[in-house]
Design a protein that fits this description.
The chain is about 35% helix and about 20% strand. By secondary structure, it is α/β, with parallel strands linked by helices. It folds into 2 domains: about 280 residues, Metal-dependent hydrolases (TIM Barrel, Alpha-Beta Barrel), CATH 3.20.20.140; about 100 residues, no CATH class. The relative contact order is 0.17. Bound molecules: zinc ion. Zinc ion binds next to loops.
């Protein structure tokens, strides 16, 4: 590499600096050198190899998305374009209990491939449990807990930032609080975070919040409640009480915060519409169970009851995102698919349609399950960080939830610009320093001298999400410059062929 006589590698001039703290913007130049922020201030007399004129635009820290699922996809699309173009420079994967277990090997592989953005991971309860117990529907024995603890400990040594659970999913849903606490304890000496996809986000959400806080309190971990929401139409509005409960725990001294994606549709698999006992022991066991008329009736009866409890009159709220055996289902809801198959529009028939799809391996889904009143109230709560709960998308494939493409831009366009729910500075704080604090990325999430040079330049009047439920495969527009570790991955809105991302291995303090 040629040695440059210039003061900086990159000099961003004339921008309004929004530093990530939530404080109001100020006017300053930002000088970057060797992947770090070298200076912030009046740098008019300084030279640089490359100058970016940010007049009329803001300069912010790169966004940190602490809730993603990129296992399997990041290897195929290491640039992570859908995230980069939405301003994300760091992702945390391994959420909802699902992660790689062999982190040392995986990190080494990703470092060889080279990523467009920085990546950190949690170690997932479900993945660890699957490794030790398969998908058995029972509590863990003491010996099994010791084996799982060893896997968590190893992953933390290899650099995981914390421990995650997905307590609605098989097999984590078969665990009790004692098991989760025991595994969280294996992470506690590493100054870790506990990221919880809770056991319930509807009727029993208060019990679920209490369980998540109990795990954090007993194991000595900070608690991040993932994709905080009310997913049950019958109790829309209940976020008033759940936020008060979180605040109450904070008053007691528990370090608990939440994250949220700014949409009223959720996304997960089709299996969650079934009782979890029906999903134990793998696909073959599921098929055998559903082949027994008596068991199938029991499954259907529980599904029907659950549907009513949630407050839905049919399955039109459940929209197929990706169904392997028949792509023509993608984008249609279960009621439409049921009718399309020539069946009468009854809940019983729709349940049969779902069970038919489960036998063929299931599907990825989008669910219209939240109310905007709750979404906006949770967004206003000061300890809510912005996180997508999305993944790295293969452009054009399936009908994924738009959150993977447009989470941050949607907050800035819809909730800052249109609705005025948040100030620009506060929105940026929730995308930068708030998640950095909880996940202990000590040199990211703020514009400060010495910090890593993850920096965005954009016009807050122009940035917008383009991805929709009906037409998801569109990148966000308006993030003109995205710099990762000092290198421009996006220049004037166009992707460059550089991949300067790093693996962020957690260090115990
Ligand atoms: Zn989740």
């Amino acid at each position: 590499m040629a040695v440059s006589a210039a003061d900086y590698d990159v000099l961003i001039r004339n921008g309004r600096v929004i530093d990530g703290t939530g404080n109001p913007w100020y006017r300053a130049d930002v000088g970057l050198k060797d992947g770090r922020i070298a200076a912030i201030g009046n740098l008019a007399s300084k030279s640089a190899d490359r100058t970016i004129d940010a007049a009329g635009r803001v300069v912010t820290p790169g966004f940190i998305d602490v809730h993603t699922h990129v296992e399997g996809a990041v290897e195929l699309n290491p640039m992570g374009a859908n995230y980069i173009l939405d301003g994300v420079t760091t992702i945390v994967t391994g959420n909802c209990g699902g992660s790689r277990v062999d982190l040392k090997e995986w990190f080494e592989k990703l470092e060889k491939i080279k990523l467009g953005l920085n990546l950190a991971t949690l170690i997932g309860h479900n993945s660890v449990r699957r490794e030790v117990m398969g998908t058995a529907n029972r509590l863990a024995t003491d010996e099994e807990i010791v084996k799982m603890q060893a896997l968590v400990d190893k992953a933390m040594q290899d650099g995981a930032v914390g421990f995650s659970t997905g307590l609605i999913y098989v097999p984590g849903t078969f665990s009790d609080t004692r098991e989760v606490v025991a595994l969280a304890k294996a992470a506690s000496k590493y100054n870790a975070v506990y990221a919880s996809h809770m056991r319930d986000e509807g009727d029993k959400v208060k019990e679920a919040i209490t369980e998540a806080v109990t795990v954090g309190r007993e194991a000595g971990l900070r608690v991040e409640i993932s994709h905080f929401k009310i997913d049950t139409p019958r109790i829309w509005g209940f976020s008033k009480e759940t936020i008060a409960l979180v605040e109450n725990f904070r008053k007691q001294g528990v370090d608990v915060v939440v994250d949220q994606y700014p949409y009223d549709h959720s996304s997960t698999n089709l299996g969650i519409t079934l009782p979890s006992w029906a999903l134990a022991d793998g696909q073959k066991a599921i098929e055998e169970r559903l082949a027994s008329p008596e068991t199938r009736r029991r499954v259907a009866a529980e599904m029907k009851q659950r549907l009513a409890e949630l407050g839905h009159k049919d399955y039109s709220y459940a929209i197929v995102a990706n169904y392997g055996p028949d792509a023509s289902y993608n984008g249609k809801n279960i009621s439409e698919i049921n009718k399309g198959a020539g069946r009468a529009a009854t809940v019983d028939n729709e349940i049969e349609t779902i069970l038919g799809m489960i036998v063929k391996g299931g599907a990825q889904m989008v669910y219209h399950s939240m109310g905007m009143e709750d979404v906006e109230r949770i967004l206003r709560y000061p300890n809510t960080a912005i996180a997508s709960d999305g993944g790295i998308r293969e452009f054009g494939s399936g009908m994924p939830h738009p959150r993977s493409y447009g989470t941050n831009a949607r907050v800035l366009a819809e909730f800052v610009r249109n609705r005025g729910t948040l100030t620009l500075e506060d929105a940026v704080r929730r995308m930068t320093s708030l998640p950095a604090r909880t996940f202990r990325f000590m040199d990211r999430g703020l514009l400060r001298e010495g910090y890593a040079a993850d920096v965005l330049v954009f016009d807050p009047a122009r940035v917008k999400d383009v991805s929709t439920y009906q037409d998801p495969h569109h990148y966000t527009e308006g993030f003109d410059y995205v710099l990762v570790n000092g290198q421009a991955v996006v220049s004037e809105g166009k992707l460059n062929e550089v991949r300067p991302g790093r693996i962020l291995r957690h260090k115990a303090e």
